[in-house]
C-alpha cells in the first residue's frame, strides 16, 4: 500500500497561489487529523508531536496520524513522570506550554494550527535555530496570515490565530471545535 506524507503538500508551497482553494480541499484531511486527535484526547493522551511528517495520506485520501512515540498520558504530565528538562516534540510546531514542560491537549491543537498556518502561507510559523524558534513560540506573536497572503479571508485568519494563542485557555476548548470553526470559516 502506498502512502504519502502530508509534509510533501505542506512544504510544496503551492498553497500560496490559492489559499481559498486550499481551505476547500484541506477541510477533509485536516478534519480527519482533528478527529484522530480528539479520539486520542478522549482517551487521556496527548500526542506531543503533531507535524506534517506524522500525517500520512492513504490511497483513498484518508489521513492517518502516526508516531505516538513521545505521546504522554494526562496522568504522566500531571505527576511529572518524565524529565521536564527534555524538550519533547518538534520545535516548529511546539506550543509554549509544551516547551515549558507541561503539554496539554490544547498543545496538539496549537501544533495542528501551526501546520495549517504553514500550509496556508507556505512558510513556517517561526524561523531560526531550534532554540530561536522555541523562544518565538514563547513570546513572539505570529505574523498575521494576511500579511503573508493577502487573499486569505479574515475569518480563516481569526480561527487559525485563536488556535495559536500563547495562552492555552484562549484556544478552542477542543481540537474538534477548532476543526469545525476552520471548516465553517473556509465556506466563505
Short description:
48% of the residues lie in helices and 6% in strands. With 188 residues, it is mainly alpha-helical.
Description:
With 188 residues, this protein is mainly α. The chain has a single domain, classed as Transferase(Phosphotransferase) domain 1 (Transferase(Phosphotransferase), domain 1), CATH 1.10.510.10. It is built from nine helices and five strands. It has helices spanning 6-11, 19-42, 74-78, 96-99, 105-121, 130-139, 145-148, 154-163, 175-185; strands at 4-5, 45-46, 55-57, 63-65, 72-73. The strands form two sheets. The chain has a three-stranded antiparallel β-sheet with strand order 1-3-4. Strands 2-5 form a two-stranded antiparallel sheet. Strand 3 (55-57) and strand 4 form a beta hairpin. Helix 2 (19-42) runs antiparallel to helix 5, helix 2 (19-42) packs antiparallel against helix 9 (175-185) and helix 8 (154-163) runs antiparallel to helix 9 (175-185). Residues 11-17 have low confidence and may be disordered.
Could you name the ranges where pLDDT drops below 50 across 5 or more consecutive residues? 11-17
Strand portion: 5-15%
- The CATH topology is given as Transferase(Phosphotransferase), domain 1
Query: In angstroms, what is the radius of gyration?
Result: 15 Å
| Oligomeric assembly | single chain
Please name the CATH architecture.
Orthogonal Bundle
Instruction: Based on Cα principal axes, name the global outline.
Output: globular
Mean pLDDT: 83
Total helices: the number is: 9
Biggest sheet architecture: 3 strands, antiparallel
Termini, distance in Å?
36 Å
Query: In terms of structural class, how would the helical and strand content be classed?
Result: mainly alpha
From N to C, what is the helix and strand string? EHHEEEEHHHHHHH
Instruction: State the name of the first-level CATH class.
Output: Mainly Alpha
Say how many strands there are: 5
Whole-number count of domains: 1
CATH superfamily: Transferase(Phosphotransferase) domain 1
Amino acid at each position: 500500500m502506498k502512502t504519502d506524507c502530508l509534509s510533501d503538500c505542506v512544504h510544496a508551497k503551492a498553497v500560496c497561489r490559492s489559499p481559498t482553494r486550499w481551505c476547500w480541499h484541506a477541510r477533509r484531511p485536516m478534519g480527519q487529523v482533528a478527529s484522530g486527535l480528539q479520539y486520542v484526547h478522549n482517551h487521556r493522551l496527548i500526542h506531543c508531536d503533531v507535524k506534517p511528517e506524522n500525517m500520512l495520506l492513504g490511497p483513498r485520501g484518508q489521513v492517518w496520524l502516526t508516531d505516538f512515540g513521545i505521546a504522554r498520558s494526562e496522568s504522566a504530565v500531571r505527576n511529572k513522570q518524565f524529565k521536564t528538562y527534555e524538550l519533547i516534540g518538534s520545535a516548529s510546531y511546539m506550543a509554549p506550554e509544551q516547551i515549558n514542560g507541561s503539554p496539554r491537549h490544547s498543545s496538539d491543537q496549537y501544533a495542528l494550527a501551526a501546520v495549517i498556518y504553514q500550509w496556508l502561507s507556505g512558510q513556517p510559523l517561526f524561523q531560526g535555530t531550534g532554540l530561536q524558534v522555541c523562544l518565538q513560540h514563547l513570546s513572539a506573536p505570529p505574523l498575521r496570515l494576511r500579511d503573508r497572503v493577502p487573499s486569505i479571508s479574515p475569518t480563516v485568519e481569526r480561527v487559525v490565530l485563536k488556535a495559536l494563542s500563547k495562552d492555552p485557555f484562549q484556544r478552542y476548548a477542543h481540537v474538534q471545535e477548532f476543526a469545525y470553526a476552520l471548516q465553517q470559516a473556509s465556506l466563505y
